[in-house]
Amino acid sequence: MGAWIFVQTLRLLARGEPVLPAEIARAAGVAPQRAEESLRSWPLVFWDDQDCIIGFWGLAIRPLKPTHSMELDGRTVYGWCAWDTLFIPEILNTEIHVESTDPQNGEKVQLTVTPDEVKEVHPRETMVSFLLPVGPVGADVVQSFCHFVHFFSSPESGQQWIADHPGTFLLTVEEGFELGRRTNQLRMMPMSSNRPGRR
């Protein structure tokens, strides 16, 4: 059940509006109390004053700094870091146009990411920085992880940046996408056996 709640939360939040737990429960086919308890117990869930979710596991309805915008179906939502824009399209099952900025030289980076591949990358040599998280994922993930994961318009720009940020390293965009795909498989694996209504 947890995997269904996870997926439906991201899909509803991608509409670009705050989401109530009751909406997520209906979409996931679970009891409202079950959805509420799960969402309240998980890290990386951000709420507004109306008890609606406004940020969840890499997706936000409001821009963060640095900004990694994701345009889909005429709407714009935002990734917490560059990597989020590479794994979220598969979960949403839709094509996403991504815009970001190289923090080293200020150049714009644009990508088109589908559930199956990175279809377009401008500039073509774009790289993504990464940081292996240490310890359990917590509410400080934006500061402790996301602020180290960016797109770079060239390997040279990325190398200059990681030289000043110990513990970081570079991946190609395709490598980042593949890492996201494998992470999604682990997150959504329970869906095959815990489908709502299945015994």
Model description:
The chain folds into two domains: 2-57, Arc Repressor Mutant, subunit A (Orthogonal Bundle); 68-184, Beta-Lactamase (2-Layer Sandwich). 34% of the residues are buried. The chain is an alpha+beta fold and 199 residues long. It contains seven helices and eleven strands. The protein has helices at 2-13, 21-28, 32-41, 84-92, 141-144, 155-163, 173-188; strands at 45-47, 53-56, 59-60, 68-72, 75-79, 96-101, 108-113, 118-122, 127-131, 151-152, 168-172. The longest helix has 16 residues, at 173-188. Strand 4 (68-72) and strand 5 form a beta hairpin.
Q: What's the topology here?
A:
Layout (H helix, E strand, L loop, with lengths): L1 H12 L7 H8 L3 H10 L3 E3 L5 E4 L2 E2 L7 E5 L2 E5 L4 H9 L3 E6 L6 E6 L4 E5 L4 E5 L9 H4 L6 E2 L2 H9 L4 E5 H16 L11
Antiparallel strand pairs: 1-2, 2-3, 3-5, 4-5, 4-6, 6-7, 7-8, 9-10, 9-11
Summary of the model, kept short:
The chain is of the alpha+beta class. Helix content is 34%, strand content 24%.
Features:
alpha+beta; Arc Repressor Mutant, subunit A; Beta-Lactamase; 2 domains; 8-stranded antiparallel beta sheet; 3-stranded antiparallel beta sheet; disordered C terminus
CATH secondary-structure class of the largest domain? Alpha Beta
Provide the helix percentage.
Answer: 25-40%
CATH architecture of the largest domain: 2-Layer Sandwich
Distance separating the two termini:
12 Å
Strand content: 15-25%
Mean pLDDT: 92
How many structural domains in the coordinates? 2
The SSE order reads HHHEEEEEHEEEEHEHEH
SS content category: alpha+beta
Spans where pLDDT lies below 50 across 5 or more residues: 192-199
The geometry reads as globular
Main pleated sheet: 8 strands, antiparallel
Q: How many E strands? A: 11
Strand order of the largest sheet: 1-2-3-5-4-6-7-8
Question: What is the fold named in CATH at topology level of the largest domain?
Answer: Beta-Lactamase
What's the helix count? Answer: 7
Radius of gyration, Cα only, in angstroms? 17 Å
